[in-house]
Amino acid sequence: MLPDLTPAALHARLAAGEDIQLVDVREEMEFDYCRIAGSVLIPLGEIPRRAAEIRTQGPVVLICHHGVRSAQALAYLQHRLGHENLLNLRGGIDAWSLSVDPNVPVY
């Protein structure tokens, strides 16, 4: 099972000022439509080439639409590259929109 956290838990950690890198693995048009403030876009297909942009120390939360692509990115980074600091946003940006920030559009 891959490590994850709920949108509410992420919100609480961000509100507490925790330094968390947010990596959104959706496509550019999805990211342009809606995103969690402070997220950086690295589409899933670009993860192998751009993995050096994802820190290896301190928490990193991977985000996609529903949590599937971000789980794939997490598995790759964890199993292929040895990252141990990753969390998958459970339910993705859709769950974030519905449970944390209704100003983030649902699609």
Automatic annotation (TrEMBL):
<feature type="domain" description="Rhodanese">
    <location>
        <begin position="16"/>
        <end position="105"/>
    </location>
</feature>
<dbReference type="Pfam" id="PF00581">
    <property type="entry name" value="Rhodanese"/>
</dbReference>
<dbReference type="InterPro" id="IPR050229">
    <property type="entry name" value="GlpE_sulfurtransferase"/>
</dbReference>
<dbReference type="InterPro" id="IPR001763">
    <property type="entry name" value="Rhodanese-like_dom"/>
</dbReference>
<protein>
    <submittedName>
        <fullName>Rhodanese</fullName>
    </submittedName>
</protein>
<dbReference type="InterPro" id="IPR036873">
    <property type="entry name" value="Rhodanese-like_dom_sf"/>
</dbReference>
